[in-house]
Amino acid sequence: MTAPKNTICIWYDNDAEAAARFYAETFSDSAVKAVHRAPSDFPGGKAGQVLTVEFTVAGIPCIGLNGGPVFKHSEAFSFQIATDTQEETDRYWNAIVGNGGQESACGWCKDKWGLSWQITPRVLTDAMAAGGAEAKRAFEAMMTMKKIDVAKIEAARRG
Asked: Does the pTM of the predicted model rise above 0.85?
């Protein structure tokens, strides 16, 4: 099997395997593909420790690198997961926040490893794409939310 041409590399402080396994259990079309151990000592660890983990998140190829505590995650990078229902939105949001993560605003949350996620119902992205007054009403409704409330976005779209 040929490796993908483009893979997202995510830096972890020794938790790449745990994070990858959580994502694989949480999101559809996700899996842990391989775990690679360091062949020798490296700045963040010792020979034999997990160095990289190949995984997919919702079909996106990723590699987790156990690089140590030097670099931290920020909102400058996030996964945006499109959802079709409130139930799906709740399931993903609650999995991330309920597993040591934290809520933020406008559909954003962070997992326990500090990685940012946007759990975004398609009704919201559809409203934004519609433009005009419909987009303005949906956007203003979203600005009051942490987890997105599908029914409130639908009501805002209708006016």
From this structure: yes
